[in-house]
Amino acid sequence: MKKQLFAVVAGAALAFPLFAQAEGAYIGANVGRSELKLSIDQEGTNKKSNTGYKAYAGYDFTQNFGAEAGYVDFGKVNRTIDGTTLEAKSHAFYAAATGTLPLNEQFSLFAKAGVSQNRTKISISDATGSESKNKTSAIFGIGAAYNISKNLSAVAEYENFGKVASEGGDKLKADLLSIGLRYKF
After folding, report:
1. Phi and psi torsions of 181, nearest 5°
2. Do 99 and 65 contact (CB within 8 A), yes or no?
3. 148 with 133: CB under 8 angstroms?
4. Beta-strand (E) ranges in the chain?
5. What is the pLDDT of residues 105-130, one digit of tens each?
6. Most buried by CB count within 10 Å: which residue of 4, 85, 142, 178?
7. In terms of pLDDT, which residue wins out, 94 or 77?
8. Which of 156, 121, 161 is nearest to 137 (CA)?
């Protein structure tokens, strides 16, 4: 995780001068409620809401179409079965195409569709160590933006990341409902 975070920060620092010269480029950060839904075959389903967050960068090729990439942390979910606790922590890197519909100078609606690379760390209370699972899944999202100034926008959005982990009949689904700020260069 520390290596991935370092790679994101280093990549952003190296790309910052390019973004500064590129009209249409933006960066942003959101925080909100993530929901993890853990379904264990024969044992039922457990939902957990956490504080989730994301950091992202994007580029609007036109007023209506663009691309975005980012990192999302969903938090963790626990499930206890017969005295044994299973804990799953999940995060994702994603890339998506974006579509924007400006309603006026201040408000716009947007949608996104893309793919995410999810990583889930699973720990069991009576076992030593943990196991990590990677899964690629489709994502979609919808949202709205309010332009506070020429460069700064407040955003609210919902993103569904689908199944972020699965094995046999067991699966973990994730989504994020968040608000944040977006800075456009």
Report:
1. -120, 145
2. yes
3. no
4. 25-40, 44-60, 65-81, 84-102, 107-124, 130-147, 152-167, 170-184
5. 999 999 999 999 999 887 777 766 67
6. 178
7. 94
8. 161
Calpha distance 91→55 (Å, rounded): 12
Spatial neighbors of 35 by CB under 8 A, at least 6 apart, are: 47, 48, 49, 50, 174, 175, 176, 177
d(CA 39, CA 169): 8
pLDDT at 147: 95
Distance CA 19, CA 10 (A): 14
Higher-confidence position of 163 and 146 = 146
Residue 92 exposure: Cα atoms within 13 Å on the Cβ side:
33
Distance CA 94, CA 57 (A): 11
